[in-house]
Specification:
There is one protein chain. With 77 residues, this protein is mainly α. It folds into two domains: 1-36; 38-77, no CATH class. It has helices at residues 2-32, 57-76, and strands spanning 46-49, 52-55. It has a two-stranded antiparallel sheet with strand order 1-2. It is elongated, with a radius of gyration of 22 Å. The protein starts with a helix and ends with a helix.
Length: 77
């Protein structure tokens, strides 16, 4: 029983490793081809139009404020 459980766990671990390696390979390959995947639905300050990022001025104002306040606090440390 213990051997069977161990064998099943090893198989699942090998499958998990294979999936991870394939995913990493795909990400690197797309990066090499200049095809970056950006989660634009939660990307504050930008919208996506035909695969291109376009500045969303209303949100960009918030992003600029966040960055400015971060730098002010960081400079005070």
């Amino acid at each position: 029983m213990c051997f069977l459980t161990s064998a099943i766990c090893q198989g699942r671990q090998d499958e998990s490793r294979s999936i991870s390696e394939n995913s990493t390979w795909g990400i690197r390959r797309r990066f090499e081809q200049g095809k970056l995947h950006i989660n634009h639905t939660k990307f504050l300050g930008y919208d996506k139009d035909n695969g291109n990022l376009i500045i969303n001025e209303k949100q960009a104002k918030i992003v600029r404020r966040i960055c400015k306040e971060f730098l002010e606090v960081k400079g005070a440390l």
